[in-house]
């Protein structure tokens, strides 16, 4: 893992409030070039809010944000893109009925000609899309193939290759393996490793510790809008990571509480049974008299 001395992305004590709701509270993390930082947490932990703050969708309520050591204050996702930060969301921002090449250059289409004769350069787009996909280890059959016919893993690879081609220095990947099978997830994890090898800083958001452990260099765990810490593999075995993410302490407390309820219910049932027996005995005794 090659790292520079300055983090590509560095956030310090950032918070995000939506009215009285505190979505993030004093969150700090950083990622270096050529490193995969895994951001883990269960649903509702604040992962989505954090990546939207990093990508310019939300402005942090407070805290400091640095890119390559320089303070930034993004007004929009376009500002983040201009700084070299590309975010690949779960929906991938692709149009299923358009071709691979069209989706690859969506919003930045190469053209040829001028004036009334200016048009989309299909040949250049097809060639570049094929070459960039080959760099990611995918030999696409036909760049004019519609994206909707690709597997989930291949669609993720198109999105990642597109971000790299347009000069991304940092990739933020929002749950890229969430809806994928084992084989497709493995394909995406391989692309993440390839991006790291190119010197790109990668923030890999996931709630799957097994996927994170396969490619991650460091791990930041979020819980209810706060960080539980940042760890390396040496500092945190996989089992401990699973325990922290799953809230094992809360589960143990809940199990104990349920056992107490069960014990209370059993005691109440025993009392009711005793009272019924006493009533029946009294009724039988009066009948005998």
Q: How large is the share of residues in beta strands?
A: 15-25%
Radius of gyration: 27 Å
- SS content category: alpha/beta
Helix percentage: 40-55%
Number of helices: 9
- Gross morphology is elongated
How many strands, which pairing sense, and closed or not: the largest β-sheet? Answer: 6 strands, mixed
Main-sheet strand order equals 6-9-10-3-11-12
Would you write up a description of this structure?
42% of the residues lie in helices and 23% in strands. The protein contains nine helices and twelve strands. It has helices at residues 47-54, 77-82, 100-104, 122-135, 152-165, 182-197, 209-215, 238-246, 248-288, and strands spanning 9-18, 21-31, 36-40, 62-67, 70-71, 85-88, 111-112, 119-120, 170-174, 201-206, 218-223, 226-232. It has a six-stranded mixed β-sheet with strand order 6-9-10-3-11-12, with helices on both faces. β9, α6 and β10 form a beta-alpha-beta unit. α4 packs across α5. The longest helix has 41 residues, at 248-288.
Write the layout of secondary structure elements.
Layout: E1 9-18, E2 21-31, E3 36-40, H1 47-54, E4 62-67, E5 70-71, H2 77-82, E6 85-88, H3 100-104, E7 111-112, E8 119-120, H4 122-135, H5 152-165, E9 170-174, H6 182-197, E10 201-206, H7 209-215, E11 218-223, E12 226-232, H8 238-246, H9 248-288
Helix pairs in contact: 4-5, 5-6
Question: Could you give a quick summary of the protein structure above?
Answer:
With 289 residues, the protein is of the alpha/beta class. Helices cover 42% and strands 23% of the residues.
């Amino acid at each position: 893992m090659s790292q520079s001395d300055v983090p590509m992305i560095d956030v310090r004590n950032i918070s995000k409030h939506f009215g009285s709701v505190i979505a993030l509270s004093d969150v700090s993390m950083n990622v270096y070039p050529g490193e995969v930082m895994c951001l883990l947490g269960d649903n509702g932990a604040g992962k989505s809010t954090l990546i939207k703050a990093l990508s310019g969708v939300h402005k942090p309520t407070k805290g400091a944000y640095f890119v390559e050591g320089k303070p930034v204050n993004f007004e929009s996702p376009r500002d983040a893109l201009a700084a070299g930060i590309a975010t690949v969301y779960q929906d991938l921002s692709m149009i299923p009925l358009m071709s691979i090449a069209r989706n690859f250059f969506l919003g930045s289409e190469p053209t040829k000609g001028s004036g009334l004769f200016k048009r989309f350069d299909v040949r250049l787009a097809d060639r570049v899309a094929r070459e960039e996909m080959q760099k990611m280890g995918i030999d696409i059959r036909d760049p004019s193939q519609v994206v909707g016919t690709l597997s989930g893993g291949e669609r993720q690879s198109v999105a990642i290759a597109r971000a790299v081609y347009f000069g991304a220095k940092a990739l933020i990947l929002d749950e890229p393996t969430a809806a994928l099978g084992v084989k497709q997830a493995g394909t995406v994890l391989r692309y993440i490793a390839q991006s790291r090898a190119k010197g790109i800083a990668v923030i890999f958001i996931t709630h799957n510790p097994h996927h994170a452990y396969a490619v991650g260099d460091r791990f930041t765990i979020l819980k209810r809008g706060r960080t539980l810490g940042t760890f390396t593999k040496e500092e945190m075995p996989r089992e401990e990571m699973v325990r922290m993410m799953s809230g094992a302490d809360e589960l143990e407390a809940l199990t104990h509480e349920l056992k107490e309820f069960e014990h209370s219910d059993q005691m109440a049932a025993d009392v009711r049974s005793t009272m019924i027996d006493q009533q029946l005995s009294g009724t039988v005794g009066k009948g005998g008299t």
